[in-house]
Specification:
The chain folds into 2 domains: about 1-160, Nucleotide cyclase, GGDEF domain (Alpha-Beta Plaits); about 180-375, Vaccinia Virus protein VP39 (Rossmann fold, 3-Layer(aba) Sandwich). The chain has helices at about 1-10, 40-70, 75-80, 110-115, 130-135, 180-200, 210-215, 220-225, 230-235, 260-270, 285-295, 335-345, 365, 370-375, and strands spanning about 20-25, 25-30, 85-90, 95-100, 100-105, 125-130, 145-150, 155-160, 250-255, 275-280, 300-305, 320-325, 345-355. By secondary structure, it is of the alpha/beta class. The protein has a 5-stranded parallel sheet with strand order 11-10-9-12-13. A 4-stranded mixed sheet has the order 3-6-8-7.
């Protein structure tokens, strides 16, 4: 996933006339047609060199960003700092051919590039030009070290190697979003953890659950009366949002992070048959259990939907009240969550949130502890 994130970042920076021809493992193969007829080669070559230099900047920024957000203990995440970029450039003739509608390149030039992927350059990060590419791109102002590479099948190739300067300190923008790999990993771990709460609530977790928790949070006996035990046993809230303000008959309510549906079932009782409740959770097992619990309780005015909180499957200005209990802390993009809550609320609507609030700086070691994120 780390390599995929880095490749995606680089591909986002590929500009015309560069085109993608193939991805092989952690290698990206690009090409540009020298005589495209629309622009002079002088201008095209300048753009190509700028694009190549940009690759190093965005690559190193992405590595720094991933380093900040990493909390996975897999080999790729542990070794993020060791990931470096190597760019190899050759100029020569090639022919196009089609395989099942996919365009490929053939000829000596693609072979040269493949061979140069294994070279004698003693550096972690570099930009290697063949002699043909060096002269074609007219980059005499770029500092290079001359060398050569020898291969049994294609002979000796003269090279010019540029070593990019050390990147400056990475300063994330104020509106920077968490990287996709962070979001995907966190959601997968959250779903794994709470699938366990749904399927094996008796197992025991590093947070309170079930009737013990409802008692701690002062859930009223009359609220729980008549509800399936399965709805209570998988309850894993942080507080009691139903005590923060009244839910009135005929109101529409959204529960962001509904779990096995306990708060939804209580809310459905409060709003009555003229009201409606939508429960949203990203864990499939929780949604399935919540739906089963609603059927067992005979509650008709509640619907459960599997989705992330950042994109609620609810119409604009639909809800009179949004409740959320111990779920927003699990969302990687909390700004997006609150934008969604605002979107689905009617003007003058209410939000009842029970969640974790940290009032002091969080150390990096804690930010990288996945159990703290999922709990």
């Amino acid at each position: 996933m780390v390599i995929r994130e880095l490749i995606t970042t680089l591909l986002d920076e590929v500009n015309c006339p560069l085109e993608l021809v193939r991805i092989e493992g952690d290698a990206i193969f690009l090409y540009a047609i020298k005589d495209d007829g629309d622009r002079s080669w002088e201008q095209v070559s300048k753009d190509l060199v700028i694009n190549m230099m940009t690759f190093f900047r965005v690559f190193n920024n992405k590595v720094s960003e991933l380093k900040i957000h990493k909390f996975c203990s897999c080999t790729a995440c542990i070794n993020i700092e060791a990931l470096k970029l190597k760019v190899i450039v050759h100029s020569g003739r090639a022919a196009f051919y089609q395989i099942n509608g996919h365009q490929e390149l053939t000829g000596t030039s693609p072979i040269v590039i493949h061979r140069l992927c294994k070279n004698s350059v003693d550096a972690d990060e570099y930009l290697l030009f063949t002699e043909a590419a060096y002269h074609d791109l007219n980059i005499s102002d770029v500092p290079v070290v001359e060398g050569e590479e020898s291969y049994d099948d294609i002979g000796t190739i003269k090279t010019y190697v540029h070593y990019p300067p050390e990147p400056g300190p990475y300063v994330p923008s104020l509106d920077a979003k968490p990287p996709a790999i962070f979001v995907e990993t966190l959601r997968a771990e959250v779903c794994r953890e709470y699938a366990g709460v749904a399927l094996n609530p008796e197992r025991g977790f590093h947070f309170h659950t079930g009737r013990t928790l409802t008692a701690k949070l002062d859930y009223r006996d009359e609220w729980l009366e008549g509800l399936p035990e399965e709805a209570i046993e998988s309850f894993a809230g942080m507080g009691n949002p139903l005590e923060l303000g009244p839910l009135r008959p005929n109101q529409k309510v959204v529960d962001a992070g509904c779990g096995a549906g306990l708060d939804c079932l209580i809310a459905a009782k409060m709003v009555g048959s003229g009201g409606e409740v939508i429960g949203v959770d990203m864990t499939k097992e929780m949604i399935e259990k919540a739906s089963t619990n609603a059927q067992a309780a005979g509650v008709k005015n509640v619907t459960f939907k599997q989705a992330v909180f950042e994109v609620l499957p609810v119409e604009d200005q639909w809800a009179d009240v949004v409740i959320s209990n111990g779920a927003i802390n699990l969302a990687p993009d909390k700004d997006a969550v609150f934008r969604e809550l605002n979107r689905v609320l009617k003007p003058g609507g209410w939000v009842h949130i029970a969640d974790i609030l940290v009032e002091k700086p969080i150390p990096d070691s804690a930010k990288r502890n996945i159990e703290l994120w999922t709990g």
